[in-house]
Every structure is written in C-alpha cells, then in structure tokens.
Amino acid sequence: MTLIEGQTSIAEFTANELYARILNNEAIFILDVRNEDEFKRSPIEGHEHLTSVNIPYFEFLEDEDGSVARVPADREIMVVCAKEGSSQYVAELLAGHGYSARYLQGGFTSWGNFYDVRDVVNAAWGRIVQIARPARGDLSFAVISDGKMALIDPMRHTEIYLNLAAEAGATMTHLLDTHVHADHISGGPALATITGATYYVHAYDAIHPIDMLPATIAYTSLEDGQQFQVGQTTITVAWFPGHTLGQVNYRVDTPDGRSALFTGDGIFLRSFGRPDLGGKGEAWTPILYRSLTERLPKIVNDDTLILPAHFSTLDEGNAEGIFAAPYSEVRAHNDALKPRSEAEFTAYVLSHLPVFPPEYVEIKRVNIGLVEACDGKANELELGKNICALAG
Amino acid sequence: MANSFDQTLDVKGAKCPMPLVKSRKAIADLTVGQVLKVVATDRGSVADFQGWAKTAKNVELVAQETEQEGGQDLYVHYLKRTS
C-alpha cells in the first residue's frame, strides 16, 4: 500500500450524516485512529448501536495485517482521526484489503464543531430553537418572536446564529449568557460586536474566580427579577448562584400562557452544575443547595419546560435530539432535587466531584477577555465533552 | 541543544500521517544505534510520536523539544533506531 498525498479515491462522510445516523440509532462502526489519549479524552459517543474502537494509525503502519484483522469485515467502517489525513490513509488501506470504509471529513475537529439546529417550540407567537453541539454536550437556544431574537448561551461559531437570524428574518436584540462558561468559549461578546445587540452577564461572573481579575469585555450586568421583552415574549432573570456566583436562569413566558426555563449550568435534566469550577467548592456548594431547594421552585411550575446548557449523554434527549423536559419530570427523575439536608448534599457533592479539567481556568479567562484564543487554540481548549455536570 | 543526532528529517508543513510515515522510512535508512532528528510543525506529532515509539519494535523516542522559528512552533523529535 502506497500513499499518494492528496489522493481522494475513498469516500468521506460528514459530521452531519454521522449525527443523523446516531439519532436514528443505526448500527455504526467507528474506527478511531487517533492516539489512545485523545480517544480516551473525547470518544465519539452515540446510542447502543454505535461501536467505537481505537486502533491508532501508527499501529496500521507498524503491523498492517495484524491491525486490519482487528477490524470487522462484515460492515461499513467509519474511520475518524484528529484532522482527516490519517483516517483517509487508514480508510484507503482498509479498502485495499477489501473493506468498505469511509473517513470523517475534517476529522474530529469537524465533529467537535458540528452544530445541530432544530425547533423545540414552534407556535403562533414564535419559536424556541435549540442550537446543540452534540460532540461537546453543549446546548444554546434562540427565542424568536415578531422579528426579534434573543440568544441564550450562544457558542463561539457565530455564523450558526447569524444564519439562523437571517433565515428567520429576525434581528438579534439580546445576547444572554447564563454565566461565564468554563468549558467552552462564548459567542456572546463576538455577536455583540457584529450585530450591535447587547451582551448580558451577571457582574459576579465578570471577575475571574481564580485570577480575581475583572473582565475586559463589554457587558451589561443583570439583576435578579429584571425583565426583557422579545417580541411577544417576556424573559425574566432569576439569579441562581452555585455553579458560579453570577449564574442566572432565564424564564421565558409566552402569550399562550406557557413558560420555559433556560437553566444554563444550574440544573440539567438528570444532573446539576458542579459548584467547584471557580476553585471554591466548599463555599459554593451550600449556595447551590439553596438555589436548588429554595429558588428553583419559586420560578417554575410543573409544566415549565426545562432547557439546560448541557447534556451528559444523548439518552437525555428524545429521538429528535431535543434536550428538554417539563419541570415535573425533572423533579421526579433528577436526584439533584431529592429531599436531603444541606449537610448531606454538601458532603455528597464534595466527595463526588469529577476531575477538574485544567483548561477550564483558561477558558474562563478567554470568556471575560483576559486572554485571546485563535481558532486553533480554541479547538484545543474545547476538545472533548463538557465535564460540568454532577449527578446524584 | 544537548541532543546529538546523525540525520535530520524536515517534515515542516506536513500533515498527519506524513510526519510519521516519512520518519518511519528515514529510520529504516539508519544503522542500529543512530539517531534521527525530526522537525515538524504539526502539534499532534508530539503525542503521536510517543504512541508510535511504544508500538514500534525498533524505535526509541530519545527526546522531544519545542522550538520557535519565525513565530512558528516547531516540534522536534529525536528517534533512535534500536534494532
């Protein structure tokens, strides 16, 4: 097998096709040829019919026949690497052995930066649109009504949101971050520059919790109870400290009497936002407890649709890939809301904290303008799925 | 730097998997015990060369360095042919 640079005899597949097949719960065989560390940090995950096997590409170089023999010959092989080149190489090598193989266009970077856009609500007054980044488990939302658009937790690929606004014929008016994110770079400040819309974040989050340095980005601070009109909808700010001190929820009330709560990293569908990413877990955990037990019940009713900023597994969504549930369902199934004392909650949280990704400190710096990140650096900082949630 | 070497391979600008494919070929041209210095611009080469050296039977990764050249990061790998 010889490799001719730039040869393209093997077919590609796109992140879009991969996600559609995952949602359909089709049988998928992913051959991930990245090195073991990258694979372990950020495997491609799906439903039960997705199989993902890691054989680094250099193993194919060293032992072609032995490595090929580890790949099943009775199905299509979807080869994935970091940036595309090695997966194309391995797919061609497999084809040479009689396999049906394709490779992921753009490599894992394109999967990590793939966005899925779909309506959660489409009503006479307007729409709530979910803009998901499936590889990262990140969710953002748009509220569109009467030609106005508010975005909640927009991510850094601003063209996704600009396209959505253009297609909807809407003007961005409010860029609403629930908090300063640690796991991904916000698109809010950039969209504010592009569109002239106002970027909002709570002032408590405009100080880096570890550096103790103030934000250099332009932002407008939020207050508990503050309201915005977006077309026919009303958005109400509800301070929800815990994951960060400045975390807020946004409740949108629509003219049909319904409501939805954008919870950011407050409560998720089956878990809640970890309170230690500011480096002060012991101090912030009791604050989170009071937000979950005292603040949350006051701002929702049983039918309020909970729309969080993250999911941990695709199983939290429905078959269409929408990650939403009425509060009654979340209350029944999310252990975050099970009755327990503050002391029990605190003891549980502090003994069950997931690993603290070191890049999360740097991402917060980027998000308040203390450092800049080019695309390459941003891709590296954001590699892999978010680790913002804690269940139980 | 203190690392000694016998041959140099320039794979600046080459994208994965070419730095490794070419290094493998260059190693085969060395005699046992000689060291190849590989200069790459692909950051992914750092982890990949580590993984490759563990997999390959005749290669030892002696050292890895990062250098700057005209504002560009260079990833330098020293590989010894062991058999």
From TrEMBL, chain B:
PROSITE patterns for this protein: UPF0033
Ranges of residues in domain UPF0033: 9-33
Cited CDD domains: SirA_YedF_YeeD
UniProt-listed InterPro entries: TusA-like, TusA-like_sf
Family: Belongs to the sulfur carrier protein TusA family.
UniProt-listed PANTHER family: SULFUR CARRIER PROTEIN TUSA, SULFUR CARRIER PROTEIN YEDF-RELATED
Protein name as it appears in the record: UPF0033 domain-containing protein
Source organism per UniProt: Candidatus Chloroploca asiatica
Top-level taxonomy: Bacteria, Bacillati, Chloroflexota, Chloroflexia, Chloroflexales
